[in-house]
Amino acid sequence: MARASQDSQDIMSLSQEEMISWMLERGLPGYRGTQLFEALWRRRVQDYHEISSWPKQLRESMASSLPLPRLEAATVHRGRDGTIKVLARLHDGQHIETVVLPHDYGYSVCVSTQVGCNMGCAFCASGLLKRTRNLTAGEILDQVRLANDLIPDENGAISRVDLMGIGEPLDNYDNVVQFIKVAHHPLGFHLGYRHFTVSTSGLVPAIYRLAQEEIPITLAVSLHAPTDELRRQLMPIDKAYPIDPLIEACKHYFEKTGRRVSFEYALLAGVNDSDENARQLTDLLSGYSCHVNLIPWNPVPEHPFQPSSKKRVEAFQRIVQEHGVSCTIRKEMGQDIEAACGQLRRREEELLSP
Asked: Is 35 helix (H, G, I), strand (E, B) or coil?
């Protein structure tokens, strides 16, 4: 993907090849770009002075002319289950939230892609503050760097990335794709493409575009209702991209990438969790290689909904499975520190929390 390598103010967003070009344009050896790329992501240096392979004059020149806008951890909350939620301060004073999750296989990180969100989903905390701006690829990458720095296991490292934090990833398309490609690079975080999950509320044109990228990542589509009538009450995006065109786009994505799509479905008591809703969902998805991820809804004080009971969630799952659709219930983590699905928000007031 072509990006403006001459943009000296966003050097952290550049690919290895773009960093090489950036150096050459300034009369420096191209290999200095490779050294910088590896230092930023594989070695996770905090500033240029830690790049020991550079001469002192180059380190000082870069530090004075182009400081690295590294994320700062404004607050760090650690949950009883090992979940870590970070309120990270950006270079312009804005804040985002990032979550590190421990698993049997290692650690994953849930990253944000925008400051605020414009999707307006009726049950999600992230949209309570409207989008201020997109994050750069470098700012998304730096969340992975910060997550690695916070892992308590000195031998541990992030092995999965979920783009499910604050913001709509496909509304920040170019920066998100650049992030994935850089994080995948052997001198970056060297993460396999299959270890990325990109969530979307259903931006149909962007799904078709993503299918052409030849990066076999997992697509997670926020569905949350089996009919347009109900979905429009929960997700305003349905007015622009109704369910039928959305499902067709998802089928196309599967055909192009070979990666089955995961449909996210947050269960709200008395709203979208009836037996009839479960049957409507299976009618929609039967005969299509996909997966349904049921999410026990995590309460958000500003929203009026109630979570479905455990019994209702299990009954819903049983109906979906009985109709031949793959379906699991998401294990919820980080609820005690408001780090669970749908609870992330941009809250500067946390800076003042004890």
From this structure: helix
Nearest of 183, 205, 178, 206 to residue 194 by alpha carbon: 183
- pLDDT tens-place string over residues 324-335: 999 999 887 656
Q: Three-class SS of residue 270? A: coil
Active site residues: 97, 341
Range with lowest mean pLDDT among 95-99, 195-199, 331-335: 331-335
Phi-psi region of 274 (alpha: psi -120 to 50; beta: other; left: phi over 0): beta
Give CA–CA dist 88/345, Å, rounded.
12
d(CA 230, CA 233): 5
Handedness of CA 199, 205, 211, 214 (dihedral sign): negative
Report residue 152 as tokens.
């308590």
- Decide if domain 8-65 falls under CATH 1.10.287.80: no
Tokens 């892609």 sit on residue: 113
Give ranges for CATH 3.20.20.70 in the chain: 72-352
Tell me, which fold does domain 72-352 have in CATH?
TIM Barrel (3.20.20)
Query: End-to-end CA distance of the chain, in Å?
Result: 44
